[in-house]
Amino acid sequence: MKSSVATQTGAISALVCGVSLLAIMPNFALAADSPLTEAINRLNADIQQHREIRLSDLGIDAPIVLGSTDSRRELYLPVPAGVPLSDASLTFDASYLNGEGGRNTLLLSLDGYPVRAEGLSEAQGNAGATLGVDKAARDSGSVRLGVAWSSIVSRVLCEDERAIGNVLRIEPDTRLNYSYDANLLQDVGAAWTALPAKPGIMVAPGSLAVGTYDAAWRLGVALERIGKHARILSFPAVQDSVDLSALRIPAELQSIPAFASLNGKGMHALANPAEIGALLMLGQTPDVQADLAINDPQLLKAINESLDAL
């Protein structure tokens, strides 16, 4: 899909998802064993990407309700195809009603393997659980959550055993958290599925060229077709405000003015191009660090100028 968009516009280029722009930075004339070089190398080596995928991100905005004697549902949560996961867990957010008593059973499975079963007998309550997810690569590009709900009420012989008052509610906040090594993305398909639910598309500052505008629009449409909602990010300019509350700057870099001016702040107005270069290098700020970029001469010029200033 991405390839066809690029063919039509001649203007799309993908950056490594969420990784800082160290890979395209000019070489610094620093001693190989200096503390500053070591700090930069640590930043460059940190390519672990973290993702959280909720059912609401997949278009499930209302609770899924399971009732009757035997009700089942399978939910597919996307992950990068063929890439091992790390620190993966699935938070099952659910509750139940037990208005008619009887035997209620909840069975959860991951990729077809049963991992949790319990009886739920109170009048109502929490049916949530946190499940560990193994690190095996999924060639299918998804983790499959199976939910089975059974509710049987003992009745007089020949009477209907169905219970409309016994139901399970699966909340849209059910979510999968995981990390992966960006170096292991081997093809466009894996990189495409690895994008977050709301990927950022970086465009050149100021007025956009016709080709750039068209490419961004087509890329946004392609993302919508796979259930993702694009955010258009214009390359930052001096005096733009950015949120630095989550920024973590290595101690060795805090001796450099551009980094020192960003340290320990919340909202901050960018004072000069060097600060923009510092944010690009750190790769931690959502307002600056995009997942995709439109290959535009004006954007490349802005990136080079900010890195040169740094």
UniProtKB/TrEMBL annotation:
Keyword Signal carried by entry: yes
Organism: Pseudomonas graminis
Gene3D superfamilies in alphabetical order: Galactose-binding domain-like
Signal peptide stretch: 1-31
Keyword terms, alphabetized: Signal
Top-level division of the source organism's lineage: Bacteria
Protein's recorded name: Cellulose synthase subunit
